[in-house]
Amino acid sequence: MAEEYTPLVDYPDYTQEFAISAVLVDMIPVTIKAQTIDKIRIDIVAQSIGNLAVDIAAQTVGNLTVDIAAQSVGNLTVDIAAQSLSTIAISINAADVTGNIPIDIAAQTLTNVSVDIAAQT
Where are the domains of the chain? Predict the structure, then answer.
């Protein structure tokens, strides 16, 4: 059964921050659905990530940051769907990537996108 994670910090300016720190992450779905997202930050630090899915659906997304740091990463999926996207920064830092990392971004208007993947293998 998948665990459900709630925002650790909910700021008055609609900023939300999710933080997950663990030794082993086997299967975590992070699903966010909203009309408007001003700022959102997702930080995941783990020694090993088996499967991780980040799905974000909103009409408008201001600033989105996804930071993932792990020794080993299996399968990682990032899906973002919005009518208007301002700034997206995705950073993946892993010593060993054994699976696939599909990143899908669908938007009518998109301003800035940065995707950084650092891996030894």
Answer: 9-119
* Tokens of residue 66, six digits: 């996804």
Round to whole Å and give the CA distance between 94 and 91.
Answer: 10
What band does 110 get if pLDDT is binned at 50, 70 and 90? confident
- What are the DSSP calls for 6-73, one per residue? --SEE-TTSEEEEEEEEEEEEEEEEEEEEEEEEEEEEEEEEEEEEEEEEEEEEEEEEEEEEEEEEEEE
Residue 13, CB-side half-sphere exposure with 13 Å CA sphere = 5
- C-alpha 44/C-alpha 62 separation (Å) is 21
Closest CA to 56 of 83, 74, 75: 83
Q: Is the pTM of this model over 0.90?
A: no
